[in-house]
Amino acid sequence: MSRVGRSPITVPSGVSVAVGDDNTVTVKGPQGELARAVPAAISIRQDGDSLVLERPDDQRQNRALHGLTRSLVANMVAGVTAGFSKELEIVGVGYRAIPKGPSALELALGFSHPVNVTAPDGVTFEVPSATRIIVKGIDKERVGQVAADIRKLRKPEPYKGKGVRYLGERVVRKAGKAAK
Fold first, then answer.
1. Distance CA 105, CA 40 (A)
2. Whole-model pTM above 0.70?
3. Nearest residue to 88 via CA among 97, 100, 80
4. How far is residue 49's CA from residue 46's CA, in Å, rounded to a whole number?
5. Inter-CA distances, 16 with 10, 48, 154, 180, Å
6. What is the pLDDT of residue 3?
7. What CATH number has the domain spanning 3-81?
8. Cβ contacts of residue 35 below 8 Å, gap of 6+?
9. Which of 146, 95, 156 is nearest to 118 (CA)?
10. What is the pLDDT of residues 115-130, one digit of tens each?
């Protein structure tokens, strides 16, 4: 049995979980509300202040969905209680981020024009310094995708390391031309 799938999800106080007839899980908490459709093969039941996910049999597809579904629901519970954030840093001379409200950025990344980024619903940006961006939200998938899209605008290059990278990301450097 899946080690991830069989561990129960503890639901903290102030968070309510509802499972609809069409296997839609809705989680409401202090940060907001999230809903997600769960595969029909996986059943969810509430045991007091915890959620238990069960699968009908040990078929390969059901085993794969068991752990995945448990992780997705656990991320929903964590998102509505504390939220998620990803930090990006900008490296390069003249590279910077300029906030244009809580859900918009203007990035100078060495192109001939500034790059404007608008956050989808439920995602906000914080710019503590011109070279640091914090992407925040309650949906882990959406926060990670927005951060990846910003990083994709100018990936860190291997010679000087210039570009947008995750905070603490290690960029493998290459040696340049050898001097004569």
1. 40
2. yes
3. 97
4. 7
5. 11, 12, 41, 68
6. 82
7. 3.90.930.12
8. 24, 25, 26, 27
9. 146
10. 999 999 999 999 999 9
